[in-house]
Amino acid sequence: MPAAPFNITTIYFLPLLTAFFIFQQSHARPRAPNSLVLGLTQSRNILPTPKLPLNSVRKPSETFDMLEPLREVRDGYLISLNLGKPKQVIQVYMDTGSDLTWVPCGNLSFDCIDCDDYRNNKLMASFSPSYSSSSFRDSCASPFCINIHSSDNSFDPCTVAGCSLNTLLKDIWTCTRPCPSFAYTYGEGVVAGTLTRDTLIVHGSTPNITREIPKFCFGCVSSTYREPIGIAGFGKGPLSLPSQLGFIQKGFSHCFLAFKFANNPNISSPLVIGDLAISSKDLLQFTPMLKCPMYPNYYYIGLEAITVGNISATEVPLSLREFDALGNGGMLIDSGTTYTHLPEPFYSQLLLVLQSIISYPRANEVEARTGFDLCYRVPCPNNTFADDVLPSITFHFLNNVSLVLPSGNHFYAMNAPNNSSVVKCFLFQSMDGADYGPAGVFGSFQQQNVEVVYDLEKERIGFQPMDCASAAVSQGLHKT
Ligand SMILES: *[C@@H]1O[C@H](CO)[C@@H](O)[C@H](O)[C@H]1NC(C)=O
Ligand SMILES: *[C@@H]1O[C@H](CO)[C@@H](O)[C@H](O)[C@H]1NC(C)=O
Ligand SMILES: *[C@@H]1O[C@H](CO)[C@@H](O)[C@H](O)[C@H]1NC(C)=O
Ligand SMILES: *[C@@H]1O[C@H](CO)[C@@H](O)[C@H](O)[C@H]1NC(C)=O
Ligand SMILES: *[C@@H]1O[C@H](CO)[C@@H](O)[C@H](O)[C@H]1NC(C)=O
Ligand SMILES: *[C@@H]1O[C@H](CO)[C@@H](O)[C@H](O)[C@H]1NC(C)=O
Ligand SMILES: *[C@@H]1O[C@H](CO)[C@@H](O)[C@H](O)[C@H]1NC(C)=O
Ligand SMILES: *[C@@H]1O[C@H](CO)[C@@H](O)[C@H](O)[C@H]1NC(C)=O
Questions:
Q1: Where does ligand 3 bind, in terms of residues with CB under 6 Å?
Q2: Is the pLDDT of residue 24 over 70?
């Protein structure tokens, strides 16, 4: 967490100061930590996932729903994992773009390489298996062990040592050895460790109800490259948190608080898991989840058009709603990527459309400093924020679903108003290397103040603009 501006008394300045961290973060090159954006060029889960033995997935009772508070930081949303006996609390990113849940493990031995950019987050907490009476290492007969070694990931120690998936599969019923160490790749990062099982305590949707999930399987990670904080995987694969808890045929929903609440300890974004997340949602517009042959465990949606302000919708390339023969294309919806990424040349065309209708002066020096491509100095009478003077952006997804991005999700104030003006930057980015993997990514910054419902039963994703701060208050996630 960046040095938090808690000494500032009015909430009014909080967004301005926290915005500062965005451009620090983006100084060298805008990037999305924990994202798949670049990493899809390093394959994972390429091989078909072996089917789990039927009895391996625990199903909590049908009526148990979860409500977990998510803490907002500058580049994502953190979930607190209560692991072990006695419980150790570790905060990790909530990531719909991956499956594995992992925590930094062993406070003496955890080693994060090239993490200087992230260290100032000061979020590092590690899990010590030796202090937990219920911790044990997963065995090589575990379906999770097969799953994590089933990608053709060249960093995988098992692959390096020549222990092929076939070797593991051959003695799946008789093997008693520990599961071999794994390596798991992300956008720019890699994590390496061992699969561990321990008790996970989760929160029910009614106050003060918790539930113990015994033998939850996660990565006990001893070394990483550019991944200083753990991750909770919310993908569709067997290792993911919703899968292991028996919710993969149901769903989950989240309502991400606006960026002005980043690092505010008094309010959290609601994450609901279970029936409650998907029932009584008939008012929402739903777009189908697309089946990506290359990455079947992640969530893809189809983007048809984008409307800027009140001018007619701009068609987007087919690649944002269709896959090629290899499975490249589609739009990934990913809470682990901060900003929305669009492919070239469409991204540049969108910038031109914006430039053609916005007549405010460009703030070139802010563009140079932050790496964002379009920043404007917009009037701000008396240095107070007025209604948004910049055009709205509407996404049109498959099935006639229109989502007008809430104000503050597309252009964001990068500094305090000064001399009756404020610099706002367009927080979208160009997709690098979009010819492999997804063509675009719908990132968490653009999902703020929207209820996003992952209806896994009906394989669809619903959107509804919502004041997530009010939602947090009504769900008891606001300290008074
Ligand atoms: C390791 O972590 C445990 C629990 O968090 C703590 O009690 C212990 O002092 C730590 N050891 C070192 C060397 O930091
Ligand atoms: C939950 O627990 C807290 C403290 O333990 C208590 O003050 C509160 O009344 C409880 N709430 C409910 C609904 O039981
Ligand atoms: C959080 O609440 C405490 C106690 O009410 C208050 O002193 C503090 O300023 C609040 N922090 C923020 C960032 O709103
Ligand atoms: C579009 O919006 C602008 C102001 O934002 C307005 O002047 C113009 O009349 C609108 N055009 C249409 C066709 O509604
Ligand atoms: C700015 O402040 C002045 C004096 O306080 C006031 O007369 C004026 O209406 C304000 N303008 C806006 C746009 O709020
Ligand atoms: C799409 O939705 C709009 C309103 O959002 C509606 O006017 C239009 O008729 C719908 N089109 C179809 C084909 O359902
Ligand atoms: C306001 O902007 C002027 C130049 O436009 C600059 O010199 C000054 O430092 C800025 N003040 C603040 C508080 O940022
Ligand atoms: C403030 O804005 C006015 C009008 O845009 C400009 O003339 C003046 O130079 C600006 N002052 C500073 C310090 O930037």
A1: 6, 264-266
A2: no
Peptide bond into 345 cis (omega under 30): yes
Domain ranges of the chain: 39-270, 283-474
Report which bound ligand comes closest to the CA of 309. 4
Phi and psi dihedrals of 20, rounded to 5? -55, -35
CA angle 300, 218, 456 (to 5 degrees): 30
Q: For residue 68, what pLDDT band results from cuts at 50, 70 and 90?
A: very high
| Identity of the amino acid at 40 | L
Residues contacting residue 69 through CB under 8 Å, at least 6 positions apart = 80, 203, 268, 269, 270, 271, 477
Nearest CA owner, ligand 1 atom 11: 107
* Closest C-alpha residue for ligand 3 atom 2: 266
* Domain spanning 283-474: CATH superfamily: Acid Proteases (2.40.70.10)
Place of tokens 């260290």: 119
Instruction: Name the CATH architecture for the domain at 39-270.
Output: Beta Barrel (2.40)
Q: Is the pLDDT of residue 160 over 80?
A: no
Global pTM reads 0.84
